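Practice problem 4.
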């Protein structure tokens, strides 16, 4: 099965996700930015993605250069990061429906209890797949 690796690069942390070609989530995790190359290499070995997708935000040029240096033959595509965090928060509540009194509130008013950078990477990967 063909897979893509999506990265939401950040100054302190990065979101990572591996998606199937139809957008299904195979793996997702938030990592410390300093571990980017090591984690990408682990995911390359474990899942053998054929394409790497990276968000185009503030820190993306540096992250992309770092990844190109360790993966010179893997195509790296840049994807628009606009509002990915908002979409990631909605995806969080889709995957983890609110319980108790929280389910009475609209999910747009709720804040996820953990970082959603990994889900932002899922959003980036799905954006890439949608434009193919």
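Answer key:
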């Amino acid at each position: 099965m063909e897979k893509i690796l999506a990265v939401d690069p950040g100054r302190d942390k990065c979101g990572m996700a591996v998606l199937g070609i139809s957008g299904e989530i195979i793996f997702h995790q938030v990592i410390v930015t300093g571990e980017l190359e090591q984690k990408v290499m682990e995911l390359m070995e474990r899942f053998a993605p054929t394409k790497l997708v990276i968000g185009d935000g503030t820190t993306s040029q540096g992250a992309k250069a770092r990844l190109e240096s360790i993966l010179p033959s893997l195509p790296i595509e840049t994807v628009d990061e606009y509002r990915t965090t908002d979409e990631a928060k909605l995806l969080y509540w889709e995957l983890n429906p609110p319980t108790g009194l929280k389910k009475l509130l609209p999910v747009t008013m709720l804040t996820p209890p953990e970082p959603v950078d990994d889900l932002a990477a899922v959003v980036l990967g799905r954006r890439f797949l949608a434009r193919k």
